[in-house]
């Protein structure tokens, strides 16, 4: 059975699954298109070119777009977990099954189907994202048997606090911005919830009780200490830390009241990218295990709809998948030989360049699914100097309070960090051991999110880390995404060359070829 599923709205994507294996998951923002792009015709053509047959099942994820005084729904709509709709239709001349289910269900089945198989009679799924905040209980037959609502819009509430403090965000008519939640997560580490004043605490409580965040009701908060206070102000940082704490407490309270203790927890939705919350759930002791997919946000929603279809037609949503399920790199031009010298890649020599402080654009194989670069579309650098963090944020044109994450060999985890659990998709916080000297990847509170690298997971990256360890003692590097600011991953040589020349990166590795800048910039 070949299933092709599409995700409408922001973070548009299309996924293809055949006989229980993920073939492709293509997000429209990738290949240097604007972040959060809707599903584009080019993305549809990309997957059509690569499939050998017309699908047996065409699946459409549900969605809801805000319009003046109404919501315009696509497919089965946004919220709720009502049973899917299945009809027969025609697709390029072939009779196919047409399937549609809600956006919320896509998150439930993405979480279940991408997690390891287990034998628990009941599984807890947390869906928390911009609009939905609920726990779902799923039985052995992969049926949703209970739903416990916590609150609407946890992600929107989180983003709104950033907007409230940001003088550039409008007082009326604005929507919570998709990229603000990650920034607030970084700022929360600078704050202390206990330091929040009574007025600041009152604002956080108002945000938690706000009826609707669409449009963002900023004008209603003109009397608050956070209004246009600046996102790097102390009041914003303490409020961010307090809101982070209160949101987690609200969801934990409902989990303890409504979900079975000892069940495995599967997390889905954009809030699943918050490594602090993920680690807290893992440390809670209430659930037997915690699983999060690398595309836990809407970038994985097309996969989730396809898995919902699989569960409907076969009874089993579980699939075989690889995080590197995007497109191969496109060699559309050759770098100008007057400016770039191509040589075979020698990892020991590249490790020497990295150790000397030279950042490297690193491209291998197919791009990663989800928003995090995991060693195939990465910008790598040495991890010891705090100046490296500043350099990478300057290259990426990001705020200087944003942390830089590392990739690390599994062999070095116990030496460099306080915990040695494996996290190949960079989804859980841990603490950096001060003795490691990894100052470039240590956030202000001592935390970091690590992509753990095993030889069988990403062999070439692991070999590079081993070569770096031979010179500097630890197989750890800075690892941040290779992209223009505001765009998805770079995926073609013309964009890569332009980016490196513009941002003054003198080393590019594509596959087994190392390109080094020559002459004057």
Structure, described:
The protein is α/β, with parallel strands linked by helices and about 525 residues long. The chain has 13 helices and 23 strands. The strands form five sheets. An eight-stranded mixed β-sheet has the order 14-23-22-15-16-21-17-20. The model has no long low-confidence stretch (mean pLDDT about 95).
The low-confidence parts are none
Note the gap between the termini: 53 Å
Structural class: alpha/beta
The number of helical segments is 13
Strand tally is 23
| Average predicted confidence as pLDDT | 97
Helix coverage percent of residues?
A: 25-40%
Rg is 23 Å
Layout of secondary structure:
Blueprint: E1 2-7, E2 13-18, E3 21-27, H1 41-50, E4 57-61, E5 63-67, E6 70-74, E7 85-91, E8 94-101, H2 103-113, E9 122-128, E10 133-139, E11 144-149, H3 154-165, H4 180-188, H5 198-209, H6 234-258, E12 265-268, H7 275-283, E13 290-292, H8 301-314, E14 340-344, H9 347-355, E15 360-363, E16 377-381, H10 386-395, E17 406-409, H11 413-416, E18 429-431, E19 447-449, E20 451-453, H12 459-472, E21 476-481, H13 493-502, E22 507-510, E23 513-517
Parallel strand pairs: 1-4, 4-8, 9-12, 12-13, 15-22, 17-20
Antiparallel strand pairs: 1-2, 2-3, 5-6, 7-8, 9-10, 10-11, 14-23, 15-16, 16-21, 17-21, 18-19, 22-23
């Amino acid at each position: 059975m070949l299933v092709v599923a599409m995700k409408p709205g922001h973070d548009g994507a299309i996924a293809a699954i055949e006989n229980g294996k993920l073939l492709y998951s293509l997000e429209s923002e990738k290949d240097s298109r604007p972040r959060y792009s809707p599903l584009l015709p080019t993305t549809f053509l990309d997957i059509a070119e690569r499939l050998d047959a017309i699908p047996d099942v065409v699946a459409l994820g549900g969605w809801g777009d805000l319009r003046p005084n109404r919501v315009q729904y696509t497919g089965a709509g946004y919220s709720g977990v009502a049973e899917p709709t299945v009809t027969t239709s025609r697709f390029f001349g072939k009779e196919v099954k047409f399937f549609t289910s809600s956006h919320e269900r896509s998150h439930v089945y993405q979480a279940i189907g991408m997690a390891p198989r287990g034998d628990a009679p009941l599984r807890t799924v947390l869906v928390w994202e911009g609009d939905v905040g609920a726990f779902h209980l799923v039985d052995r037959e992969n049926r949703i048997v209970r739903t416990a609502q916590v609150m609407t819009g946890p992600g929107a509430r989180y983003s709104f606090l950033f907007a409230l403090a940001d003088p550039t965000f409008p007082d009326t008519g604005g929507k919570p911005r998709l990229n603000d939640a990650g920034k607030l997560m970084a700022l929360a580490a600078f704050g202390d919830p206990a330091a929040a004043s009574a007025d600041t605490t009152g604002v956080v409580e108002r945000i938690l009780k706000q009826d609707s965040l669409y449009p963002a009701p900023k004008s209603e908060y003109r009397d608050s200490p956070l209004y246009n206070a600046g996102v790097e102000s102390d009041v914003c940082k303490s409020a961010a830390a307090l809101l982070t704490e209160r949101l987690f407490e609200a969801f934990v309270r409902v989990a303890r009241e409504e979900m079975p203790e000892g069940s495995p927890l599967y997390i889905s939705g954009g809030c699943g990218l918050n490594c602090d919350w993920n680690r807290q759930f893992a440390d809670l002791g209430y659930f037997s295990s915690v699983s999060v997919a690398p595309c836990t946000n809407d970038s994985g929603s097309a996969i989730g709809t396809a898995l919902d279809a699989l569960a409907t037609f076969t009874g089993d949503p579980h699939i075989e998948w690889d995080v590197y399920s995007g497109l191969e790199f496109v060699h559309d031009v050759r770098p100008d030989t007057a400016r770039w010298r191509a040589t075979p890649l020698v990892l020991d020599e590249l490790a020497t360049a990295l150790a000397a402080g030279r950042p490297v654009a690193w491209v291998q194989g197919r791009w990663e699914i989800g928003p995090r670069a995991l060693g195939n579309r990465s910008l790598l650098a040495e991890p010891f100097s705090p100046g490296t963090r500043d350099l990478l944020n300057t290259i990426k044109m990001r705020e200087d309070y944003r942390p830089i994450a590392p990739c690390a060999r599994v062999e070095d985890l116990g030496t460099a960090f306080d915990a040695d659990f494996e996290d190949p998709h960079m989804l859980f916080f841990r603490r950096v051991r001060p003795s490691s000297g990894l100052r470039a990847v240590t956030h202000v509170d001592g935390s970091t999110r690590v992509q753990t690298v095993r030889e069988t997971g990403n062999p070439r990256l692991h070999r590079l880390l081993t070569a770096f360890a031979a010179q500097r003692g630890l197989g750890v590097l800075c690892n941040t995404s290779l992209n223009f600011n505001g765009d998805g991953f770079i995926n073609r040589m013309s964009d890569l060359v332009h980016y490196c020349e513009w941002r003054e990166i003198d080393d590019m590795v594509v596959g087994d070829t190392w390109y080094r800048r020559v002459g004057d910039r």
